[in-house]
Amino acid sequence: MTRAVRPPQRRDAERSRRAILDAALEEFSELGHAGARIDAIAARAGVSKPLIYSYFGDKDALYMAALREA
Protein backbone atom coordinates (compact mmCIF):
# COMPACT_ATOMS: atom_id res chain seq x y z
CA MET A 1 0.00 0.00 0.00
CA THR A 2 1.32 3.42 -0.93
CA ARG A 3 0.77 6.48 1.22
CA ALA A 4 0.25 9.82 -0.41
CA VAL A 5 2.95 12.29 0.46
CA ARG A 6 1.56 15.64 1.48
CA PRO A 7 3.55 18.78 0.96
CA PRO A 8 4.35 20.58 4.20
CA GLN A 9 1.62 22.98 5.22
CA ARG A 10 2.60 26.60 5.21
CA ARG A 11 0.98 29.09 7.50
CA ASP A 12 -0.50 32.24 6.15
CA ALA A 13 1.81 34.84 7.70
CA GLU A 14 -0.84 37.53 8.06
CA ARG A 15 -3.31 35.09 9.62
CA SER A 16 -0.65 33.97 12.10
CA ARG A 17 0.29 37.55 12.93
CA ARG A 18 -3.37 38.45 13.50
CA ALA A 19 -3.89 35.39 15.73
CA ILE A 20 -0.83 36.35 17.80
CA LEU A 21 -2.00 39.94 18.21
CA ASP A 22 -5.53 38.87 19.16
CA ALA A 23 -4.17 36.40 21.72
CA ALA A 24 -1.74 39.00 23.05
CA LEU A 25 -4.53 41.55 23.52
CA GLU A 26 -6.52 39.01 25.53
CA GLU A 27 -3.52 37.99 27.64
CA PHE A 28 -2.34 41.54 28.32
CA SER A 29 -5.90 42.68 29.08
CA GLU A 30 -6.42 39.89 31.60
CA LEU A 31 -2.99 39.81 33.25
CA GLY A 32 -1.22 43.05 32.41
CA HIS A 33 2.23 43.30 30.88
CA ALA A 34 4.01 41.80 33.89
CA GLY A 35 1.67 38.82 34.20
CA ALA A 36 1.38 37.96 30.52
CA ARG A 37 3.53 35.07 29.29
CA ILE A 38 4.69 34.44 25.75
CA ASP A 39 4.04 30.70 26.08
CA ALA A 40 0.43 31.41 27.07
CA ILE A 41 0.02 33.80 24.14
CA ALA A 42 1.47 31.16 21.81
CA ALA A 43 -0.97 28.56 23.15
CA ARG A 44 -3.94 30.92 22.71
CA ALA A 45 -2.86 31.74 19.16
CA GLY A 46 -2.04 28.17 18.20
CA VAL A 47 1.53 29.04 17.22
CA SER A 48 4.99 28.36 18.60
CA LYS A 49 6.96 30.68 20.87
CA PRO A 50 9.77 30.94 18.31
CA LEU A 51 7.26 32.20 15.74
CA ILE A 52 6.18 34.99 18.09
CA TYR A 53 9.80 35.98 18.68
CA SER A 54 10.44 35.82 14.93
CA TYR A 55 7.58 38.22 14.21
CA PHE A 56 7.92 40.60 17.15
CA GLY A 57 11.38 40.18 18.69
CA ASP A 58 10.43 40.36 22.36
CA LYS A 59 7.52 40.76 24.78
CA ASP A 60 7.78 44.55 24.86
CA ALA A 61 7.58 44.83 21.07
CA LEU A 62 4.60 42.46 21.03
CA TYR A 63 2.91 44.56 23.71
CA MET A 64 3.43 47.75 21.70
CA ALA A 65 2.17 46.11 18.49
CA ALA A 66 -0.92 44.82 20.31
CA LEU A 67 -1.63 48.30 21.67
CA ARG A 68 -1.33 49.81 18.19
CA GLU A 69 -3.79 47.25 16.83
CA ALA A 70 -6.32 47.72 19.65
Helix and strand layout, with pairings?
Layout lengths: L12 H23 L2 H8 L3 H8 L2 H11 L1
Helix pairs in contact: 1-2, 1-4
Mean pLDDT across every amino acid position = 92
* Second rung of CATH, namely the architecture: Orthogonal Bundle
* CATH H-tier superfamily: Homeodomain-like
CATH fold category name: Arc Repressor Mutant, subunit A
| Name of the CATH class | Mainly Alpha
Strand tally, please? 0
Distance from N terminus to C terminus (CA atoms, Å) equals 52 Å
What overall form do the CA principal axes indicate?
A: elongated
The low-confidence parts are none
The fraction of residues in strands falls at under 5%
Order of helices and strands: HHHH
Percent helix: over 70%
Radius of gyration over alpha carbons? 15 Å
Backbone structural class: mainly alpha
Total of DSSP H or I helical runs spanning 4+ residues = 4
Number of structural units classed as domains: 1
Main β-sheet: number of strands, strand sense, barrel status?
A: none
Structural key phrases:
Arc Repressor Mutant, subunit A; 70 residues; mainly alpha
Short description:
This protein has 70 residues and is mostly helical. The protein is 71% helix and 0% strand.
Can you put this structure into words, describing what you see?
The chain is an all-alpha fold and 70 residues long. The protein has a single domain (13-69), classed as Arc Repressor Mutant, subunit A. 71% of the residues lie in helices and 0% in strands. The protein starts with 12 loop residues before the first helix and ends with a helix. The mean pLDDT is 92.
